[in-house]
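ok posting inputs for the NAP job
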Amino acid sequence: MICLCLTGKTIEENREYVRRYRDCIDLVELRLDLLSAAALDAVCSNPARLAEMLPGVQLIVTCRRPSDGGAWSGDERERRRVLRDMLDGASDWIDLEDDLSDELEIAARERGVGIIRSIHCFESLPDNMGRILDRLSRGGALAKLAVAVSGMEDVARLVESVAHRAPGRHIVLGMGEYGLMTRLLAGRLGSAWTYTSARGAVQAAPGQVDPRTLVERFGFRRIGEQTALFGVVGDPIAHSRSPEYHNSRFQRDNLDAVYLPFRVDDLGHFMSIARTLPLHGISVTVPHKAAAAELADRTDDAVQETGACNTLIREHGLYLGTNTDIPGFLQPLRPYLDAIDAATIVGAGGAARAVAYALVSRGMDVLIVNRTVLRAEALASDMNRAAERIESTRAGVRPGRASSGALPESSSDIAGFRSLIVQTTSCGMEPNEKCDPIPHYRFDGSEVVYDIVYTPATTMLMSRAERAGCRVISGALMFEQQAAVQYDLFRRSYWSYQRSRDDGTRSYDGVRRDIGRAPWSRPSEG
Ligand code: NAP
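and the output
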């Protein structure tokens, strides 16, 4: 269920929030501590009127002290009196902090009002969260534990604390940006409901989103007990177009699947959550591609050679790592490939690794130029080692060779590798649109210029190349292609999950094994 926190100063303001989100919410939490003195007096003198004022929704009342993230400025006796008054009204639930005496709880029970016992932690995560939840549930109360999380390690502990609890008898949520997943996946973590705030209103707690965003952007209502979960991990992640892309396809194909964005600081801790939930497919973006290559249970050749993994798919309980940037990058280049004999790769990050491997394994000599020359040198030597392995294992295949240079000093060397220039740095990407990584290089119009940045669709470098008469390929094409390959893999993982449910196949934990050929190069199972 979705609960809207009413943080307005007046009942009129709160009524407007209810009206705005009526179609998305199941219950509201009236924050008595945030009401103006006049509004609080009016509510306390006639609490029964709240039903008319906030019609058609279940009502939770609470009155938070500053230590619980609230704004109550009166004394404790007065706070208890305000809460007591509310019991004679239209409240369905009353939220009482753990340390509030049982007197109010007894009075609430007598009037048939549901009890929520809560703890809000803004410092560090408490130890023994399981035991705390047990204590909060005393007497059949709904236990609520809201804790500020500072990263995935905290979120993983939170998820672990509810992994074996019966659903619907608790609410556990992580406050702050990293805790968003505990709000989006509230149902899957057994929480009775998730809390939201109206857009533009005072946020009742850090990290809340508004109900419409929860429903329309994050597909909250579509997440059922059996829904297959997918997502993208990165930091930052807000800019990612992947949720829009994959969710629209899941809906088009009528699959019971949802794809969510996860801001992740530590992939190792995230993977323990992914295995618990579980997630059936994960897109991996900056800065986690190298870590994903390490943490996958199995990897294909391309991931082993590049050390970069942008896709994890779950098969029989194991995460298989692959890199769809490689086929995604090559696809838009196909019409030009025959005419290209050598290429310059600008940049030596995760994406450059996929690009370099795609070109070298197709027999192209590449020059890798980067601001940090050591990274360019490391990538070139990794690619030369990969080329030797390819040559020794695949008869008749002649891979290319890689050399390296520093930017901007090596700009003049580009001329010898100019039939294709691939821009792979984040220079030119929003918010650095005014950045051109090779400002000293003059295009002569013969180059094919491929900028893999896709926000904005046309970068400064692309405009300059176009003006010089070059053929230009946009990163948006690569994004579409790599996402299409990824979607195909997610669909396979989805159907494998459905089949395992049908025949009762148990998932199992496995050891790392190498699987050789990339899964996207194998025929589709449909
Ligand atoms: P990454 O691993 O963080 O690497 C960033 C690269 O950019 C490094 O080579 C870095 O150089 C360089 N760089 C950053 N700022 C720079 C500046 N001001 N001047 C010169 N060089 C600079 O990131 P990544 O995963 O490789 O991603 C890079 C870009 O590719 C991003 O914009 C990403 O969105 C895009 N991408 C697009 C697609 C697609 O489908 N179209 C797929 C993957 C990635 P140093 O080594 O010196 O720091």
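notes: Residues 230-324+482-515 form a domain with the Rossmann fold fold (CATH 3.40.50.10860). The chain has three domains: 2-225, 230-324+482-515, 326-479.
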